[in-house]
Design goal:
Layout (H helix, E strand, L loop, with lengths): L4 E3 L7 H10 L4 E3 L4 H12 L13 E3 L2 E4 L6 E2 L4 H7 L4 E6 L2 H10 L4 H10 L6 H19 L6 E5 L5 H8 L46 H11 L10 E2 L4
Parallel strand pairs: 1-3, 1-6, 2-3, 6-7
Antiparallel strand pairs: 4-5, 4-8
Amino acid sequence: MPPKFFQIGFNKCGTTFIARLFDLNRIPAAHWLEGALADDIAYARLTGTRPLARWADSVTAFTDMESVRFLNMPVIEGFRDFALVDRHYPGSIFLLNTRRVEDWIASRYLHRGGAYARSIAANLGVSLGDLGDIWARDWADHLSAVRAHFAGRPTFIDIDIDQAAPEDYRRALSPWYDLPHLPALPGAAKGYGRPPAPCAGAVPGHGSGPPAHGRRGRPAAASRAGRAVLSGRTAPRPSARGGGGQ
């Protein structure tokens, strides 16, 4: 039986592509499940029980472990409890998926027509304009913590989705999983495919590094996205819940 796989990067970083990679090759995967994965991890942390136990016998790969319930529930980022998951599932494969942080912030602002950002801002009690700086700090803290925890482990994969082609994922995961079928990258049909990375895959410590951020240094793309949400130019979708996404 192949080892468990856990994607432990943020949402809006190609999580749907990673889930499809396993689905396409008939490897059981659980993606987001409307926040149930993250909720289960949070419950296990509070009760001292095994996280994701209800899926452990039937699922190999777990992706997009986040829960955001509009508008008055806390945001639960289960993937940030990677140390807890690692303790209960020794020998598992952990993949940190990163991208250019400025683009990630912009994508989060625009996710679900801006409703995602509004929900998080309301929950944190901050303005929408403050989220860019908060997310940049969260990004840097999480990447640093993950890379320190898994430093030197061959079962840790650090991959930059801006540089990685589908073949890079297959090569990085090939020691543990047979992946003959590869899905297209998001946007590939529109000509947005990326060239293969020269050394993407199981390379701890390499990926999208945290740039310096501050109010004066906030990326233009993120600022534009934030202003679009603030001005109401992005209408929220009717769904009352949200979380996962590419």
